[in-house]
Amino acid sequence: MDTLAAPLTIAFDYTRSLGPVLGRFMAGLRERRVLGARTSDGRVHVPPLEYDPVTHEPVTDLVEVSPTGTVVSWTWNARPVEGQPLDRPFGWALIRLDGADTPMLHAVDASELHTGMRVRIRWTPARQGHIRDIECFEPGESDMSGSTGGEPVEIMTTPIRLHYTHTTSTEEDRYLRALEQGRIIGQRCPACRKVYVPPRVCPADGVAPDEVVEVADRGMVTTFCVVNVPFAGQRLTPPYVVAQVLLDGADIPISHLILGVEAADVRMGMRVAAVWRDRSRWSTTPENIDHFEPSGEPDAPYESYAEHL
Amino acid sequence: MNAVAVVGYASADRSLTTSGVETLVPVITAALADAGLGRREVDFWCSGSSDYLAGRAFSFVSAVDAIGAVPPISESHVEMDAAWALYEAYLKILAGEAETALVYGFGKGTAGDLDRVLSLQLDPYTVAPLWPGATSVAALQARLALDAGLFTEDDMARVVGRRAEGAYLCCPLREHDVARVADGAAAVVLAATDRARDLRERPARIAGFAHRVDPQGLGERDLTTVPSAVAAARDAGLDGPVDVAALHAPFTHQELLLRAVVRAGSYLPFGANAMFSAGLSRIGAAAGEVMSGRARTAVGHATSGPALQQNLVCVLEA
């Protein structure tokens, strides 16, 4: 059975502190120079190592190597994807720059590659102290030399974007499809008999839920918090209340907004009812319930929700 | 000191949801049944998974639902293949802090573009920002081995019963050289050997268990000799051929590189690459050979990281 699924993109700009070695390496790239790390055994590592693998001492000796090198291994990338150095077919290669003892990985813009091929760096026109200051490599020998100087780069930013298809479980699927019809359902654990809303594997017993139970769209506030702090993407103006609402017929509360009442007047045990969006806007989402508001019924006694605190 | 044995194993080759919880429930139930152990008799639980795989935050916390954590349990997690969680559980039993353990791994590798997701395990300063992809990195390793004359493209194809013909996927890798990305889950039950003999007639005793890691820089290690696998095999006391080995090799050339390290009378074919449970499944499958009596000695191997960067070797005996 195909359950509900939806695209999900997660994106974050990672900012990383570079430290004395990578900071100088990145500053070098900005000036069109490649620096390698010389370790105690005399080997020159590109990209540079921050610590000597033999002595474990911090690396301090950075030496300039050539922007030209030799392909040590390669493969062909026929279908470039988001974020890669080139948007047309290109080669990936391990390239040992002249003067370095270790190869580095980068893209090569060439119609064909072979082991032993001579390649040179093609620099990005607007460089900022990042590995992407090397746009890619290309066949040939470099006759350009970089300029010297420049303060070490302290921070580099790398945007990360990942795309997924989020797939619901059969229980979540059933719950969301019921919401589309204006109903709230839970499912009962066959072991402890508790009704979970939304339905889920019972975290106490580790078994899948079975019996489907329709619960009310009203219930009581078990506990709540007043949101006073503004944050990015906030849709309401503070102060407002987010509460745990135990729906009648459910054994676990859901989290929702309590509106239509002053934040200061919300209290534990308060009876509340769902305020649904206009029916024309219903879909398979919990957002069909816009918020909860006081129902006007007398408060529930403490004993009726004590076990949920 | 205690010795430790594998007493149960189960796996699933699919995962419906991105949470994995629903997939784990039957797998854990089956592994416990295989071991003849009740859920509340498990002293220690340990899992392996990664939120990056399906883009779901704290998925390992949700996964605890599948265990049933009331009354409170002793539980841990590694952001690696669950074979490494098995190592943690093994130590827990060796240390006398637990007599039994259940280890599980799960992942929905098809939820995203796995090749792209795996770029994020590369050096975050100088490699990951290029998004080279796991298959491209493996292809660079394969070419080094081919150029060194360690084997041929035909040898690689024979690992999966094929011939080296047709177009390259990511040269020198063809479609058949790259294990299918799969969803999955697996669970292995461990017990101290005294207890293990009560649970089943023929437990698979862990005779040696070790894991090692190579430097992160792809240019900082010999990609054709897999030093960390060699070191792990040595630390695990592997000093000769075993009856059967189950190697975790997402690419055919990696199977060949690893066979040079772990010698065996036969090798269990590697099916699909179910991230975060595949390595644990290899140990489960190797243990299954011992528990069934088909083998007296076996090795389960797991890998993690780009181009066989990290390797774990588990030596099993009747």
Q: SSE layout and pairings?
A:
The complex is a heterodimer of chains A (309) and B (318).
Chain A: E1 5-17, H1 19-30, E2 34-38, E3 44-45, E4 62-65, E5 68-77, E6 90-97, E7 104-108, E8 118-123, E9 134-139, E10 155-167, H2 170-180, E11 184-188, E12 195-196, E13 212-215, E14 218-227, E15 240-247, E16 254-258, E17 271-276, E18 289-294
Antiparallel strand pairs in A: 1-10, 2-3, 2-4, 5-6, 5-8, 6-7, 8-9, 11-12, 11-13, 14-15, 14-17, 15-16, 17-18
Chain B: E1 4-12, H1 21-35, E2 44-48, H2 51-54, H3 59-63, E3 75-78, H4 82-94, E4 100-108, H5 114-117, H6 134-147, H7 153-159, E5 168-170, E6 173-174, E7 181-192, H8 193-199, E8 204-213, H9 227-235, E9 242-246, H10 252-259, E10 264-267, E11 273-274, H11 278-291, E12 297-304, E13 310-317
Parallel strand pairs in B: 2-3, 2-4, 7-11, 9-10, 9-12
Antiparallel strand pairs in B: 1-7, 1-8, 4-7, 5-6, 8-13, 12-13
InterPro entries (chain B): Thiolase-like
Protein name (chain B): Lipid-transfer protein
Class by SSE composition of chain B: alpha/beta
Strand order of the largest sheet of chain A: 7-6-5-8-9
Report the total helices of chain A. Answer: 2
Instruction: Give me the secondary-structure category of chain A.
Output: mainly beta
Task: Please report which band the strand proportion of chain B falls in: under 5%, 5-15%, 15-25%, 25-35%, 35-45% or over 45%.
Answer: 25-35%
> What is the arithmetic mean of pLDDT of chain B?
95
Main beta-sheet annotation of chain B = 11 strands, mixed
How far apart are the termini of chain A? Answer: 37 Å
Termini separation of chain B: 19 Å
- Kindly state the number of beta strands of chain B: 13
Q: Domain count of chain A, please report it.
A: 3
CATH architecture of the largest domain in chain B: 3-Layer(aba) Sandwich
| Multimerization status | heterodimer
Shape of chain B: globular
As for the number of domains of chain B, it is 3
Q: How many E strands of chain A?
A: 18
- The helix content of chain B is 25-40%
Total helical elements of chain B? 11
Estimate the global geometry of chain A from the Cα principal axes. elongated
Most extensive interface between two protein chains, with residue counts? A-B, 63 and 59 residues
> What name does the CATH topology of the largest domain in chain B carry?
Peroxisomal Thiolase, Chain A, domain 1
